[in-house]
């Protein structure tokens, strides 16, 4: 794996050309080496590959996050095959957006782009100046620097309002200090101490037409830069929407042709339904009056039913007949007893008429009569 990949991309100005276009964060040296976010890494890989292909002088559309990864990978591999590059990469590994195969593809494309721009690697040239001062001179200068810095710190009240006169008198002294002081750390401390007093604040005037004009120009440039990417996306979206609308229109025409007889039948049935509803309205004019008459007749019928039921219940009552039967039975018994008594009396009368009855017979007859009574 070539670790100079990010150096090549920066030489091709990826930070100014591509990164603001796709709004991605600054890439680290090992961005395509390890896995951090596969979806984001694949989109950055596809965008970088497309940008490098355009750098090589070939037309290649800027991919979107919604595009099919297989289509993008196939297009990149086709470009590599056109350049007679042996391509034996797995599409599954390329979809990850990181790894050896991704880095090798980007290395090949970046090398081709650098060749297109006539770039050549050169060895670095390092100039090492020879120091003519001895160690003792350097130590002496450092000692003088410390003394002069202490003196400068003591004389710093020249920045106040009370020491304006002294500042003009000692105006030549800093030049001597600049010639003698070579200690970088001391100058750095001095700069940090003096920097707040040297800041210049410029308040932007909102009414200045120049500032507004510059702001409008910056906005215009930003809009044009963004339109380069969004224009292609909008055109693609317009084409997809128009094709979808054409498909919907064609499908609608087919459905209209298929359902035309059903629509006609539905219209005829709707007309018949309207006729039937009109007839129903005409026939249902006197329904309320007839309903009232029906209610009255039903009440009368209920009253008649109640009367007939009461009469039927009274006719089905057998208690008087039972009492009559009992009375007849008692009468028959009484008649039998009366007949028996009559026969006994007749016998007694017949016996009295005969003179030759004995006393015994009289007693017996008396006993019988007593028993009868």
UniProtKB/TrEMBL annotation:
GO cellular component: cilium; Golgi apparatus; intraciliary transport particle B; microtubule organizing center
Intracellular or extracellular location(s): Cell projection, Cilium
Principal subcellular localization: other
Xref: Pfam families: IFT57
Superkingdom of origin organism: Eukaryota
TM ranges: none
InterPro entries listed in its UniProt record: Intra-flagellar_transport_57
GO biological process: intraciliary transport; non-motile cilium assembly
Keyword set, alphabetical order: Cell projection, Cilium
Family that this chain belongs to: Belongs to the IFT57 family.
Protein name: Intraflagellar transport protein 57 homolog
Organism: Bombyx mandarina (Wild silk moth)
Taxon lineage: Eukaryota, Metazoa, Ecdysozoa, Arthropoda, Hexapoda
């Amino acid at each position: 794996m070539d670790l100079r990949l990010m150096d090549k991309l920066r030489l091709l100005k990826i930070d100014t050309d591509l990164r603001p276009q796709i709004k991605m964060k600054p890439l680290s040296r090992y961005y395509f080496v390890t896995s951090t976010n596969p979806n984001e890494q694949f989109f950055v890989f596809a965008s970088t590959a497309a940008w490098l292909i355009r750098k090589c002088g070939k037309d290649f559309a800027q991919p979107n996050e919604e595009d099919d990864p297989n289509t993008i990978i196939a297009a990149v591999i086709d470009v590599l095959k056109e350049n007679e590059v042996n391509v034996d990469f797995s599409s599954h590994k390329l979809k990850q957006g990181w790894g050896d195969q991704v880095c090798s593809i980007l290395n090949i494309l970046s090398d081709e782009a650098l060749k297109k721009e006539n770039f050549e690697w050169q060895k670095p040239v390092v100039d090492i100046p020879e120091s003519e001062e001895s160690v003792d001179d350097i130590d002496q200068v450092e000692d003088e620097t410390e003394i002069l810095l202490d003196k400068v710190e003591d004389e710093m009240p020249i920045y106040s309002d009370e020491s304006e006169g002294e500042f003009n008198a000692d105006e030549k002294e800093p030049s001597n200090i600049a010639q003698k002081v070579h200690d970088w750390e001391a100058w750095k401390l001095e700069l940090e101490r003096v920097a707040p007093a040297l800041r210049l604040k410029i308040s932007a005037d909102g009414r200045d037409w120049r500032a507004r004009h510059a702001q409008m120009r910056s906005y215009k440039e930003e809009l044009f830069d963004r339109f380069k990417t969004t224009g292609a996306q909008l055109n693609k979206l317009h084409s997809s929407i128009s094709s979808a609308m054409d498909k919907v229109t064609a499908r609608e025409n087919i459905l209209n042709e298929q359902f035309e007889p059903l629509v006609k039948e539905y219209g005829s049935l709707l007309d018949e339904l309207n006729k039937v509803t009109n007839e129903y309205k005409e026939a249902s004019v006197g329904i309320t009056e007839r309903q009232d008459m029906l209610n009255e007749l039903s009440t009368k019928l209920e009253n008649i039913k109640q009367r007939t039921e009461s009469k039927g219940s009274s006719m089905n009552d057998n208690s008087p007949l039972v009492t009559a039967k009992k009375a007849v039975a008692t009468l028959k018994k009484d008649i039998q007893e009366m007949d028996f008594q009559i026969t006994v009396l007749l016998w007694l009368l017949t016996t009295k008429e005969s003179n030759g009855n004995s006393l015994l017979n009289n007693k017996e007859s008396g006993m019988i009569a007593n028993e009868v009574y």
